[in-house]
Amino acid sequence: MTARIMDEAAKVFATPTAYTDERKLHEALTHLRANAPVSWVDVPGYRPFWAITKHADVMDIERDNTLFTNWPRPVLTTAEGDEQQQALGVRTLIHMDDPQHRDVRKIGADWFRPKAMRDLQIRVDELARIHVDKMAELGPECDFAQQVAVNFPLYVIMSLLGIPEADFGLMLKLTQELFGSDDEEFKRGTSTEEQSASLLEMFEYFTALTASRRENPTDDLASAIANAKINGEPLSDIDTMSYDLIVAAAGHDTTSATISGGMLALIEHPDQHERLRADLGLMPLATEEMIRWVTPVKAFMRTAQRDTTVRGVPIAAGESVLLSYVSANRDEEVFDDPFRLDVSRDPNKHIAFGYGVHFCLGAALARMEINSFFTELLPRLRSVELAGDPEFVATTFVGGPKHLPIRYRLT
Hints:
Layout: H1 22-35, E1 38-41, E2 49-52, H2 55-63, E3 68-69, H3 79-88, H4 100-109, H5 114-138, E4 141-143, H6 144-149, H7 151-161, H8 168-179, H9 192-215, H10 221-226, E5 229-230, E6 233-234, H11 237-268, H12 270-278, H13 283-294, E7 299-304, E8 308-310, E9 313-315, E10 320-324, H14 325-328, H15 363-377, E11 381-386, E12 391-392, E13 401-403, E14 405-410
Helix pairs in contact: 5-7, 5-15, 7-11, 8-9, 8-11, 9-11, 11-13, 11-15, 13-15
């Protein structure tokens, strides 16, 4: 059997705190792309996996969704976390494979199609104005991540689902606990039981919401999910709750991370900030560049269904691979000067939304929100600078700046 190559640098993928220091993280990823683009990772607390760091290899694996499946290990968690998810029966879109994935995805697809996005544009622009106005009221200093960036996309996706505004705070808290389960500030506790409590609370909430929407259907996304049928049969309770959960949580946390990270990037690259402010026509390209720069979803996992190879490295059936989107989006073979923020980067072949059949369902909405927010903010932003050190979420899955203290002047 060919010896598995394990480069020490690949341990970053199973080190949540590695994502809190972007400089050191990218040093490790740059080294891996050049020296061990397919590296075995076997560290205490995690089931072993292969780390994939090159853009082309990530794309190839994403394309072949029958060879590399999402089930049974779609995200990197500890061995205990893997067992916990399977015991609870979590079955979101990211846990599913075709044909089930295709059928279930269709339930929400119409809500994110171009026509639906055009209809939603006015409301998103209105919410962008409201939250920039709130930012003005908070000035001259605020924690941009926690006081501004988390709230705007939260309002958008919760309104789409039909969740009452009184519950927005609860949804934010539970989402931060779920995605921040490796972060000392956000995690609910240290035991598996304590950390599973957030997920169980989400399930309890959406169980009640589903029952309400089935008894009294409305015109929101939660009602569409609750009353959906596949081949004439309603979704199971666990599938309904899982669908609500992934929309509610991922539908705002990833976008807020990009808005926070995008603001930080503009502060750190004042030439690009001024360039964009002087030409808002660049905003669609700048939006894509912010998404590439932040890459809020750090990685997904896939499992090989038969023996294969990646870049000549044997991968056995049943072994898992980690697709590092963060690394792929800095691949020197794909992006010119990848560590330079360029608000006019074109083409921009980032894969922050994934690729293939599992391409992010809410990508169009995320793009719209980022575009709308900065289109509203930049003409009014007279000055901005850091008022303290940014802090990042410790994670192996979704994250970005969790605190971004800034000092600014807004008209």
